[in-house]
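Hey, quick one: can you model this chain's 3D structure?
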Amino acid sequence: MTRAMDARIVCLVPSITELVCDLGLADQLVGRTGFCIHPWDTVRQIPKVGGTKDVKLDRVRALAPTHAIVNVDENTRETADALREFIPQVIVTHPCAPRDNLDLYRTLGAAFDRRIEAERLCDAFETAYAEAAAAAQRRPERRVLYLIWREPWMTISRDTYISQTLALFGWHTVPADSTDRYPEIDVAAHAGHVDHVLLSSEPYHFKDHHIPEVAAAVPGARVALIDGEMTSWYGSRAITGLRYLQRYVDEDARSADLPDSRRRRDVLR
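Sure thing. Here's the predicted structure for all 269 residues.
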């Protein structure tokens, strides 16, 4: 068994790479994907091993890691199985709801002897979560279409981390039932059935010029950009994400009180 202080970690999950650094393990991080970009001043010096879906196994092998961190949604089963052939410990993660972050912190804290740091993150998360849950009780519920891709249009199912996080704030994603976690949809079919359409910054990077296109397809809904890292990144970013979303929904509530003409200009901005 490798001692925690001797661990050589390859992380193939962008949000968890950030978590590894926040646990004080940056010096033991020997490999990352090209999408692992936070904290940039630290990770830019760490070798890249491809993307989350196209991991270069030869590069990973050359780094002689003792641990690899993968994720059910981010990485393929084939990649995880291949890593197990030459890496002693492969840690598989799969947070599906905000409070799963607590287990994530503690799992990595135990694996790499960072229990104190993990508990500090747990305390910070619990505070942010409690504040979000208390504030949510004062807000009206919303029906939300959350778009992650264009051509074809794609959204999220309710069993995803993003949907469960939005639900904490009373924003319930559609469709309510889906056999696919990330289904293709007809955006116009949701006209008259949703209050909001959220255009995520990842994995497809929606921008301002996409707002009028979607607003025309879903008249009556408020269409807005949203920071995908704040909704989809678990790990230490989830703490910041909860506070970001609290401000986001507060701003939405204030906007709802504006006259229709002003609100229409905001949607198309």
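One thing worth noting: The longest strand covers residues 142-147.
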